[in-house]
Structures are given as C-alpha cells and as structure tokens.
Amino acid sequence: MLQAPPYLKPGDKVAITAPASKLEATAVEIAVNILKERWGLQVVVGETIGASYHDFAGSDAQRASELQRFLEDDSVNLILAARGGYGVSKILDSLSFEHFSPKWICGFSDLTALLLHINSLGFQAIHGVMAKTMAFDEPSNESLKNLLFGGKVDYVFTHNSEYFIEGKAEGEAIGGNLCLLANSVGSKSDISFDGKILFLEDISEYLYSIDRMLVQLGRAEKLAKLAGLVVGDFSDCKENDEPFGKNFQEIILEHISKYSYPVAFGFEFGHENRNFAIRMGETLSLDVNKFESKLKSI
C-alpha cells in the first residue's frame, strides 16, 4: 500500500487551484463555505481561479507555478482541484517534486494524470469531487470528507444483472479517467497495474474510442494481471452514424474476457453528480456477487 499523507484535522489548510480549464471565481464559493463552515478548515483560493488564457485557467507557466507553490508549501494539507477539463498533462513534466511536502491531492477527470503521478512517487491521492462539483451532491462531499479525515472505504452497490464477473480480490486502488490512463502509457507517470484494482470512468467518448483506448491498455499489458476491475460512470457515450454494435459494458468485458478477475459495474464514480471518493494507492477488498458489489478498506 502506498504511503498516506497525514489525515486532515480541523484547522488544517486547503489550497484550491485550477491546473486545467478555466472557471468563474464564483464557481468555488459553495465549496469554500463547506470547507470553512462545515469542515472547520482554512481555505486559500489560488489566483488561477477566475483566470483565463484561451480555454485554460491561465497560461501553462501560470498554472504550473501556482501548483508548484502549493506542492512545496508545508502549511498546505490538501490541494483541491477547482475543476478538470484539459490541461494537467501539459504542465506535469514542468513540475518538480524534489521538495514535495506530502499532502492530499484531490480531483477527477483530467486530474487523473496528476493523481497517477503522485502514485508513481509512492503516495496515495484521492479521486473525488472538486471545488466546482461540491455544489452538486452532499453524499459525495461526505465521502471525500470521510477519507480525508482518516475514515474507511465502505461502499455497497448493486449492478445490472447482465454485467458482472463474480469473485473476490484485494489490491491497491488505481485508475480514474480511461482517456488519461491510456494517455499516460509510456510517460514519466506510468506505473504497473499488476495486482491492483483498476477503477475506470469516462464521459462523452465515442464507443469506438473506448474500444481503442482499451486496446491501448491491453497492448501495454495493463489489463492482464489486475486483481479486479471496478467500472464507474461512462456518461454520454456516443455512436458513429454506423452503430458500433456494442455498449460500453460489452466493450469492456470483451477486452478482459480471457482473464479471471472479478469485475463490478455500477459504482457511482465519475462525471455524474454522485461521485464517491477513492484513495488511489490504498489497499481495498472487492467482493462481487450476482446481487451486489462491496468495496472496503482492509
């Protein structure tokens, strides 16, 4: 299991930054209120919040500089991404982790690239709601708070009776957005998936593109030796004019059909309003039967 940064306690400091796409400054107001008034934390809002450079929250240099400052700041206990979009991968290789002060980093979507890089350094990171999306769903917020303050993972969810593979597994959690995971192959952030429980989600992808990205992971030998697979939301999947012929569940099952690990679909994880948190790098147990699936801290 990867090292967990220090868990939060009341009075700790959260830095909100936008390392990818731009957003209005008002979009983080609800999150700031929750973090301060309900969770008892201090909040620092970065200058990238409300900044604009084309579609980004400032230039690559501006976004990297702010993130670098928060990574090295000993007084910051949590870096919370403001939103995803696109842009984290563009700045990753310009960051230095020589003086990284271990702390929690949280986000999803495009932030998968950063979470994976933090995992490659030997630390856990959290796939969960971001400042903008904290306005959407209180149970998702509470799941993040639970994990940040040292609570256990304990999720039970039902699945479509057509799509599952029964079994039990234990392994480190890894994953997030399928597109970013496929794009990380061969990069400095690339790590082994062997013996791990892989989490997948994505949004607005063509079905053939989902198939192509899984081909990439398969060719890179990322799927062969998993301990288990947990599939979250694949929102707004798209068809070509000529139908692809399979839904996303069937595509995924086809790519892992020659392996024998458990597979759970239906975990509320991804781009829908309900987005439960997972500590990537924590060792979890997965138990899949014909009626439900269970994810728990060990």
UniProtKB/TrEMBL annotation:
**The LD-carboxypeptidase C-terminal domain covers which part of the protein?**
170-285
Q: What is this protein called?
A: LD-carboxypeptidase
Annotated LD-carboxypeptidase N-terminal domain ranges read 14-128
Look up keyword rRNA-binding and say if it applies. no
- Show the Gene3D superfamilies listed in the entry: Class I glutamine amidotransferase-like (3.40.50.10740), LD-carboxypeptidase A C-terminal domain-like (3.50.30.60)
Member of which family?
Belongs to the peptidase S66 family.
Q: Does the keyword Secreted apply?
A: no
Print the keywords alphabetically. Carboxypeptidase, Hydrolase, Protease, Serine protease
Q: Which organism is it from?
A: Lacihabitans lacunae
- The chain's coiled-coil residues are none
Fetch the InterPro entries from UniProt: Carboxypeptidase_A_C_sf (IPR027461), Class_I_gatase-like (IPR029062), LdcA_N (IPR027478), Peptidase_S66_N (IPR040449), Peptidase_S66C (IPR040921), S66_fam (IPR003507)
> Which lineage?
Bacteria, Pseudomonadati, Bacteroidota, Cytophagia, Cytophagales
